[in-house]
Amino acid sequence: MIANIEKLRKNKGFNQDEIANKLDIARQTYSKIESWKKEITLWIVVKLAEILGVEVWEILWEDFSVKEKKEIDWDKYKQIVRFCIENGTWWKFKITKTKLAKLCYLVDFAWYYKHLEPLTGLEYRKIQQWPVPDAFFLIIDEMLEKWEIKLEVKTNIKNNYEMFLIENIWWISTPKLNLEEKSFINKICEKWKYKNTKDIVDFTHNQLPWMICSDKKIIPYNLITQEDFDNVY
Q1: Which of 31, 62, 93 is the last residue of a domain?
Q2: Could you tell me the pLDDT band of residue 193, with boundaries at 50, 70 and 90?
């Protein structure tokens, strides 16, 4: 992060005095922040991002897209989706679309927390109620079209909501998930199995990656490493 702040400042054509004035702090104080001799606060990070015209994660991390770039295995992602439907709910393999998306997100980011590489390599975007990869909706549609899963629309007093369930238990595909990955995903699913959709939404919205990223922007995997272990999934 040290080099990143300095690099961003120089790229934007600012000297240390100018940034210090905009932050309303002494130049010496700013210099210590930039050289990591003084702890940086979240307020300073947010203000720096505003001054430099960048996202908060650009202050915290450098070249994250290169480090996290990974070839996408779409069959593997479909198997993660299916595994979360099978194991992420207690009621007849049925799960809401939002809870399903959240589970897939937690699986990917928690795997990164443990291994410093994503399980799928998909880019997750902050939109409305969920961090979700753009491909999520396309994959769900494809699985519905192929009858690999089934969609039910439930109606309650307030609104309609979509519920997915396993339709073809005989669906066969080349296994993409190894035993460690299955065990890891199952651990996350077991935690949330008896929780409702609102619980998992509230949990993810209190995580650092969601809180500091702008709407509709890609959420860097790296940010999850700043969370306490108990708040990863």
Answers
A1: 62
A2: very high
Does residue 82 sit in the same domain as residue 47? no
Query: Could you tell me if 194 and 211 lie in one domain?
Result: yes
Domain containing residue 45:
2-62
Residue 180's pLDDT band, with cuts at 50, 70 and 90, is: very high
Do 111 and 224 reside in the same domain of the chain? yes
Query: Can you read off the two tokens belonging to residue 73?
Result: 């295995």
Question: What is this structure's pTM?
Answer: 0.70
| Percent of residues in the chain assigned helix, strand, coil, to nearest 5 | 55, 10, 35
Query: Does one domain contain both 75 and 57?
Result: no
pLDDT at 36: 67
Q: What is the CATH number of the domain that holds 23?
A: 1.10.260.40
Whole-angstrom distance, CA of residue 230 vs CA of residue 224? 12
pLDDT the model gives residue 159: 60
Higher-pLDDT residue of 178, 33: 178
Cα 61 → chain centroid: 15
How many structural domains is the chain composed of? 2
44's torsion region: left (phi>0), alpha (psi -120 to 50) or beta? alpha
The per-residue pLDDT for range 8-34, each reduced to its tens digit, is 888 888 999 999 999 989 988 888 888
The two structure tokens encoding residue 190 = 């077991």
- Torsional class of 84: left (φ above 0), alpha (ψ -120 to 50), beta (otherwise): alpha
Residue 189 near residue 88 (C-beta atoms within 8 A): yes
